[in-house]
# Entry
Amino acid sequence: MSLILRAGLLCASGVALGLLANGFTPRPAPLGQGVLASAEQPGAACEDAQASVARISVREAKPLCLACAAAFVDARSPQEYAAGHVTGALHLSPGEGAETILPRLRAAPTVIVYDRDRDCAAADRVATRLQAGGIRDVRVLTGAWPEWLAGGGPGESGTCSLCTAGTR
Amino acid sequence: MTARILIACRLVLGALFVWAAVAKLPDMAAFAQDVANYRLVPALLVPFVACAVVGVELLAGAALILGLLVRPAALVLAGLLAVFTAFLSQALLRGIDLRCGCFGGDEPASWWTVARDVAMLAAALAVARRPQGAAWLRRKAAMTRSASSG
# Structure
């Protein structure tokens, strides 16, 4: 029997064994049901009312954006930012230095940080750094960028010229 | 010397995969969630893939320990490790913060995890290339007997 055939048979037997074992485990994988990534599930961490950084919904944030009453910070990658972001948003990835944009953000009454994913992990990290940098009213956008887009929030594309101007 | 190293690689790889499968078995739902968090497998296929991975790990790992079907088992595990490495790397490059799901538990995915998978992949390929399994040991014992009797 060829090597590939034996490897294939081993795989098929392994799959059968795995499915059989799933039937006897105390917490089986839900066969026949979809499993979404944690960040895409309703009620993900982004919606956590107990989170250390305050939350703001797209419905509340949109009028603030239109009235220029809040500064937005994009916590996604530079490529994602360039492809499309909230109009007027500055860019700050979790690993980048915040010094360049901090003076600009201090002038804003509210700073809203948003993420790519609904788990808001990157936005939470950026928001915590902004708080440590002296920004008082920092909030994380629930539903993140996908919900902003779905909610018809204003957006634009291009790189962040303001993020590199000034002190850098 | 090389044969001893390859036998050690086979046994360690087999033990690691059996351990990885046994650690996941009590909570397959959690492992399915780990698989989903890589965001590469369609949601409906996630539970099936989770079961398949655990079953293949268990069977191929046991085969390596027992020295049976060593070459196909090592080849299957090498394929599995190549897929794990690709999944982990894309998640890290995309900035997705997740548990690796390697041995159950809460171990986070990191470049260290990728390096470990690459090392295991190299070991699996070495074992697949020169399998020192039960058949090989029997042949070697027979050769030793015939040499001593002759």
The CA atoms of residues 57 and 68 of chain B lie 15 Å apart.
